[in-house]
What does this fold into?
Amino acid sequence: MTKAITTATTCPYCGVGCGVITTPLADGTVSVKGDETHPANFGRLCSKGSALADTIDLEGRLLHPHVKGEQTSWDFALNAVADGFKKVIDQHGSDAVAFYVSGQLLTEDYYVANKLMKGFIGSANIDTNSRLCMSSAVAGYKRAFGSDSVPCSYEDLDNANLIVIVGSNTAWCHPVIFQRITQAKNDNPNLKIVVIDPRKTASCEIADLHLPLKSGSDATLFNGLLSHLNITNKIDWEFVDKHTDGFSDALMSAEESSVSIAQVAESCQLNKQDVEQFFTLFADTEKVVTLYSQGVNQSSSGTDKSNSIINCHLATARIGKPAMGPFSITGQPNAMGGREVGGLSNQLAAHMDIENSAHRDVVSRFWETDNLATMAGAKAIDMFNDVASGKIKAIWIMATNPAVTMPDADKVRDALKACELVIVSDCEQFTDTTACADIILPALAWGEKCGTVTNSERCISRQRNLLPHPGKAKEDWWIISQVAKKLGFEDHFNYQSSADIFREHAALSGFENKGIRDFDISGLATLTDQEYDQLKPVQWPVTVDKPAGTARLFTDNKFFTVNGKAKFIAITPMAPVNEVSDDYPLVLNTGRIRDQWHTMTRTARSSKLNGHIAEPFVDIHPEDAAKWSVENNALAKIESQWGTVLARVQLTTSQTVGNIFVPMHWTQQNASLSRVDAVVNPVVDPISGQPELKHTPVKISPYQAVWHGFILSRTPLKLSNNDYCVAIKGEQFWRYELASESNIEDYSAWAKQQLGEEGDYLEYADLTAQRYRAAIIKNNQLDAVVFIAANHELPTRTWLSNLFTESVLSDEARLNLLAGKPGADQPDVGPLVCACFGIGENTIKEAIDCGAAKSAAEIGKQLKAGTNCGSCIPEIKSLFG
Amino acid sequence: MKEKLILIGNGMAGMRTIDELLKLAPDQYDITVFGAEPHGNYNRIMLSPVLAGDKTIDEIIIHDVQWYQDQGITLHTGKSITDIDRNKQTVSSADGIKAEYDKLIIATGSNPVILPIEGGQLKGVITFRDIHDVNIMIETAKTHKKAVVIGGGILGLEAANGLMIQGMDVSVVQRGSILMNQQLDQTASDLMQAELEAKGMQFLIGYNTAEFIGSERVEKVRFSNGIEVEADLVVMAVGVRPNIALAKKAGIMCERGVLVDDTLKTYAKNTYAVGECVQYRNQTFGLVAPLYEQAKVCAAQLARIGGEKYKSSVTATQLKVTGINLFSAGDFNGDEQSEIVFYHDRARHIYKKLVLRNNKIIGSLLYGDITDGNWYFSLLNEQKDISAFRQDILFGQHQVDEEML
It folds into this structure.
């Protein structure tokens, strides 16, 4: 017997960057738990992290290079990539090629990609999906501090007396941070939480105050706050005078846009008292962290919004000290690493700027190149516009899925389809983007690849491999280096390992730095392979002087601007570019849900995670629903000038009137017409280039399906075309939610066509009521069921779903099967709330109703719900409401 | 002096009427019963279990001869009445017994239909009506092997099943494609056929019987398609006809049966009729439930505490073949105005069908799982609007919240 080997690694999902301990088990599965020593999470994991082991199977993985749909050798595929690039560059110049990379890449992969494009191909046409995520935050920091420096640490949240959460459903999108905040609130009764978000999200569960401000009005609110701080004499004049520039201009702009609290409240569509309370809390609390995310960033004025927040911290000198600061929390596991290597098209490398000739000189000499790009390349939206216009003729997409995630996504997809050469490196074979590719290259996935990531608090943390390399899949850095060599740059891409690359990256950060650039990890430039392998989480800067890293920046009040002073930015609040109109009267907001990650390529492999929210939905206020005649649980069509999406309607007063919300995750791979970004306007922040994903004018109408239905099947099915079809992986089954605007002539024939006829066929029909149900039973196990109805009112899927895990279908269950429920006297656990322990809403409600549990904690004791990752605790609490 | 009541026919309907009457007015009448069979009163519908060996003759006797004595009823067994004199209000039997009546009940039952084909008189060609027939079958099975049952209705299948249990190889001949077509549709018939075949019963579906062949005893059955099948015993179970010969002879108005009104009175003075011999609103009867209803109404009339009127009601049928569960009631086929809800688990031989009109059950057909038969039947009789639980109703009462019922 070999002893189980544990590997410490880092979670591949959000920007919290939790440490994960993995142990391969004898049965081939992997045990996953939180790393108690990791400073990001101290042992906690959210539902997604807890389910990592469910995502490592090889089903659907891309394991071999393919060129034009044919499986090829690596050599053939790499030649095809290099030859394709060479040909385009020779004919059209280096700006006719582009890389679109990702916050999912490891820093080492990212570094090599950036080096190849900017250093050797000689174009800055490398941009990243982080553009969609935090480029406004980057731009905001750079304007204020002269550098892209996140000043704070997570421990600041532990010790604050006020946490202002702006534009972030932290409870769902950064659950472990949320748990940390919840813990801090439990430990410190003085801690106040203010949530600023148009939606009443799960994060509001712990809020002392929720400001459901008008979508896009954040800068007005923070300008109002700045004015208020001035009026109430909270300005730290000494700090402002000594360490900042531009306060008076900023204040003037702030005062212009916020004459009074009443006017701010009106502009933001808030209660005056609430605004007053928030301003007073902020004014009176020294230890305040403003935690902000996509609600701020994903805006046509996201950079300004960031600065309106930073202004308030600078004005009160609440920066560079424990328990305070403007804290941008990133979406992706390595968005920060990407920023560090210069993965955005307007960056150079190691937090150096492409427009800065001195920086270009430093980097050219370090890389030993004479072909360094001299000006910024195309930012994401422009890049795909250039693909559409033919200006870019070859694009290499790595570890991301822009055919789903870009605004005006149909246009992006069509542009890719039309593009001369599309290369996609991915670990998944079938994505909406690989579907557009000429060449697909198999990359390693989490658990297989090896390198570093940086989380939201600048903490560099190792991802380590615990699994063998499957098929012919390779490290991204290896793939890029091979192409670099074939393009003739062999001397500069001779890496043997990710450690080689990391050392070079670290060395560049320190190269001729001497404290003039924020990003400096020169202290790690001489790590041996073994030291790299054993690298403990560490916050940059890491220098010879500060080998243990740096928890907090700007403690010395010195900034990375030319004069060392922080800059106030005068902000004139801007409305979102596209305002609602008679034709498009509602504001569409998009975002994440608790248990899915991005385009679901990993998380949708986990039946547990699919249990929480199975289908794309639209949250809408009951008044709006009534006005536009859409019904709860029915399907609705949401249309903008740019596209259409279908989603299931959820009535909720957590939406304000006039605002709807649709999650970002669903793709063509698992849903027929549910890519919400096809609807989203392709409008960007002029400074950051970040798209306005949170604000698109849309209209909503009922989807006129003539039938609705679902199929549960033990094996995945190829369903013939349905207008609405969502595929969901469950525990030992696949679920398909269906609806269509066209009739089925013969339900029985149709069902047999979808499910096959092998096995016992059970059938139920009430055709005048347009109700058809059938099941297939093979070897006394449930193999498939189909339910069809005239409307969306179908039995819940929970009981039927659970039957797939039974080794023998009982006679009783068989008899009740096509009723879709166990019988009036039997419990139905209801929709899943706790993904970790599979506890349903009805079970929890019952415990509450019978008085057995009086709090979420008691629910945890009795049912275990919420006791593992805790992501569902806000929902459990809401059931007590 | 008590009034004189004569019952012609010592069968189930007539004697049930007497039973009901004794409950209502035990001392009102001097009762005389004439029966053609040489027995007391027995439960004819239990002949199948007797044939199948599940019951003995003794076990299906309802009233033995002693009972009649105890009740002071004069019983004439083995006596067929040949004449009714309506004017004198007398009846007379073949062997010369004559009796007067103040009230008369005709309960002459029905006769099995005899196919008018060659060879019908051969030994071993019988029907399935009474104890005598059952005894022939049981005896024949001891010495012979091959049986052909003509007619795939309830009676035919029960006979076939009994004969099979008695050790014979049995083929059932059915002209149309649906067995028990008064109770089943094609789907249910197919399921039942498969189950009976699995038990060893053979079927000749779509066959028309043309001739019974044999010298003294039947040896073969020939069909119109030319095929011949060996047979030592042929049981004809192709239906029954009301036995109206006596009533007709007496000039009592008959069509297919003896015509009765809502009180079971015939067109003749002081004369009632009950059971399979009657025709009520163009309907004749073959099942036991409506006969019992008639008996009740008729008895109340005789006891002069009338007011009760007979209403033809929907009947539910089951088949007495071990292992075959079916329940059929009402209009199980439906028409253009009706709607059909069905459930079918072929492998488990389960089929359930409800026929609805305006969200009310008008017919039900259950095969394999008859748990909810009586529930559906009561919903049918109540004409309950089932729209609130229409989508669950086929899965059983346990699927429906009590509040909805």
